[in-house]
Specification:
The protein has 19 helices and 18 strands. The strands form 3 sheets. Strands 3-4-5-2-1-6-7-11-12 form a 9-stranded mixed beta sheet, sandwiched between helices. The longest helix has 19 residues. The protein is elongated and about 70 Å long.
Amino acid sequence: MKVLYVTAECWPFAKTGGLGDVAYALPKALKKEGVDVRVMMPKYSTIPTYLKDRLKKVGEFSVDVSWRSQYCGVEQLELDGVTFYFIDNEYYFKRDVEQSIYGHGDDAERFVFFTNAVLKSIDKLGFYPDVININDWHTGMLPLYLKEKYAHLPKYSHIKTMYTIHNLQYQGIFSSDILGDILDIDFRHFNNGDIEYHGQINFMKAGINFADKVSTVSPSYAGEIKTAFYGNTLDGLIRANEYKLVGILNGIDYDINNPQTDQNLFVNYDINSLDKKVQNKIELQKLLKLEVNPNIPMVGIVSRLVSQKGLDLISFMMPEIVNENLQLVVLGTGENQYQSMFHYYDSHYPSKVSANITFDSALAQQIYAASDIFLMPSLFEPCGIGQMIAMRYGTLPIVRETGGLKDTVNPYNQYTHEGNGFSFSNYNAHEMFFTLQKAVRLYHEDRNTWNILVRNAMNTDDSWSKSAKEYIKVYKSL
């Protein structure tokens, strides 16, 4: 089976969020299952030099973006057994290092170029996939272009598309002015509502309407986005396309996230040496100038500090949280109100609260390993990765029952001792706090049961190999 995995970002080349992690780990897992999978992404100027230096040119041609004819180079690199292709055009992808890879005024034109370049490169490279797996709004126009401009060609006629939604909140909405100037498609697609959205163009709507299959990153989220609360105004469209919707849970990369081999940790450990896990807590307490005490439960938060992640619940309960017998370690950046709030409690409770308002991947791994509890009370969460990494490191998550959090965290049952974490159902600050209190109480009063839950968490299979098999099932159905 041949699969072309098309993405706007992929670690370690370029990453702004979860899509970057998935785009690296899923193809690697698919390759292990025997799929001929290749990844295609833009060649950003911000790709690390040590990787850029290994790229070799494999193609060069021109790509039409409406009336423009633009240069396109294709460069190639093999990493972890997977072939990566990079679409090169400095006008579109050589941007200021300080800026994100998205959020530019010409994003519509940039990603229409990318989409057209992907489809044209298939013939130039001689790699004709059975399935093109596209991701998020940046590639949403691809199924429409494939059907409109390429499906009549014998080498393209068999190709199917699967559109994966990682977060329905970001839809790629642009002015209708781009219809003729950039999109260069039949105006009937706008007039009949295929891509029209309140008088504008919606790339994600195009992807949902024209892809042969639509997937999202957890079964619960696939159900939730059919409702008005989670559907971000596209719930009606999702319900109309329900017959081709599937939810496949993301995994995490077990090679990168492995407490036995993770070089960022102070002390490596596994399920049979949990006594070494506590050494990580002691070393982190020293590093962050918290009270050094192995018997205080450490609560970790590694997150974007935004309201979607439940930060308003935490903010509301902070006076009560700091009065509990616990320590709180926060890592992340985001909205000023939450950054300021954590700075305030860090300065007033320096032995109990450590606010690290930055992005530091090594410190993130140290927090996952050192913490006893991982707090993730999201308003909505398509899949979530933090809770899975936490469990891999023997840290028990406290989550709200939504999206992928609901699908991955099995709440503690005090009668059977089953469970790999704690959860609460309503988006309510007191409910979150009572769940935190329950976890802290169990930690202090019944360490045997606590260690059973820690082992349950570490035995949970959140590997990509499990998810890859589900993707292959969907590819085969196409």
